[in-house]
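Researcher: Let's try something more involved. This one mixes different molecule types, so please make sure each is placed in the same coordinate frame as the others.
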Amino acid sequence: MKDADTPVPEQRELTEAAQQARAALASVDAVPGAPKPDPILVAHGIRRSFGGIVAVDVDRFEVQRGSITALIGPNGAGKTTFFNLLTGFDKPSTGAWSFDGTPMDGVPPHRTAARGMVRTFQLTKSLTKLPVIENMKLGATGQRGEKWWNGLFPWRWTAQEAEIEARADELLRRFKLDHMRDEYAGALSGGQRKLLEMARALMTDPTLVMLDEPMAGVNPALKQSLNQHVRGLRDLGMTVLFVEHDMDMVHDISDWVIVMAEGRVIAEGTPDDISTNTAVIDAYLGTHQGRSLLEDEL
Amino acid sequence: MDIGAVLENAILQFIGLNACYYAIAAIGLNVQFGYTGLLNFGQAGFMAAGAYGVGMTVSIMSISVWWGIGLGLLYSVALGLLMGAPTLRLRADYLAIVTIASAEIVRLVVRSVKFKGQFGGTDGLRNFAQAFQQVGIDLGLQPAQDYGWWIFTFSGRNLWNLIVGWSLVAIFGVIVWRLMKSPWGRVLKAIREDEDAVRSLGKSVFSYKMQALVFGGVIGAFAGMMLALGNASVQPDNFSRDLTFFVLTGLVLGGVAKVTGSIVGPMLFWGFYSFLDGLLRELVDKPVRIGDFTLLQSTDIGVVVFMIMGILLVLLMVYRPQGLFGNRKEMAFEGR
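Model: All components are placed in one shared frame. Result:
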């Protein structure tokens, strides 16, 4: 139950990008594996088992271009494993998927990133012994100075480096980390590290941003600004897929919600569809919730 | 007892040929271990690759010793690729196991009877450094004549070795320092911190680790070449595990991920080692006894020196974990 003064999504002015995303998804059936009008990411029959345990078994999974899609589910639902599979950090036993029309199966993680599909991690991976600005500059792709034969000849990369640095500073300002620019990343708080990781991911100039629990360990004040940053990505034309446990955030910013449980997609729909979906409530709270056992027998 | 002579010798060792090739090897090891986080325990193998590269030229292949530089490079690159290809995708510990084993394989192969014709067996190789020494003579340094002042007096031959050796230290020091300031160096440092983060940002971690391993190995090969040319001989047992760990200890003493640390650390290590060794030898002119119990005699010195060095290193790690030149601030974020 929300307080009367808490803004609900409908009351907020939706940006053009948000309206477009919601309009495109309005015609999509709220069923698991529903085809989207303009999917950027399409996966079929992805299955990954560890020994006898099937961690992920997804028949069909599509993400609408330009939308913010949330991937939710109880602990152990296989969300992070699914992320790892899609980004090449893990290999599925079977299955095929494509990003922006190009097949991605068997593509190593560094190539996925180079193609515009970037991810962050549930446990932040800030490079603690590098300054914040160096963390940021590392994110830029196609750097000439990263070739060993160019390293010794600064004139081949200083111009590019200056461009990258300007872009990094711009992003740091946007994420309000500019005052920490020259500090070691290890000196940042947990929430700031989440911001840094997101900002660094943006340095790769991605088309699809995959965030693994961006809100975990972030204080409520920072959550609001993180929410805005994620919405901002959609306005800049990026597609966002995120895993999250924070239901307020999911309800607040996502255009579409996909629910996983026990490795499968069990439900899809708009945030409102999902909050009333019985399959989802069952998955989170257990079957037969709110009914007496006797009733169930009948 | 002559403490003056002990000190004098220690100071000469501090800037001597051994310290010099330890420093070159440590600069290379620093690229792998200090900057990239690769646990290379086989730097002696790379040094052997360089040393045998120059050693095999004149006596085995009947070509000029200068070809040895190319040959040493070739061997060390091949060794790096061979070590790295199966292990760099695995966890860091596996590289440590493979590198220490590879270095031993190299040593056992070159000292084997089977390949005596190629590598000279346990006797090693000699008579290949004349052309190198000749350059010094042509530049006016008479091999038998003494140059220098006060205690810093070297024969022309030694002086030439030291000039070339310390020039190499300077050259590689500057190269590594510049490279680590470049975006290439940034990727290496990032790999040391977190490989997956680097992967997620679109860099091929395997390729960068391989570059670091081979590059550091090539520098190690130059250390081996210097060892071979300076001593005018190569013996397989120069390249035992001790060598690797002397270099590694020197590097840690100086401070990892710092070029100055990688140069001064091995110098101090070797200088201090020589000092302790000399000091104990002076002390134990005759065995030190308490009653009938012999506390220390001259045959114990080698071991006791290592014990003292070990204790000092433990103390260093406790009170100054970043090494003498390391960055305290960086260390503060260890394991966070």
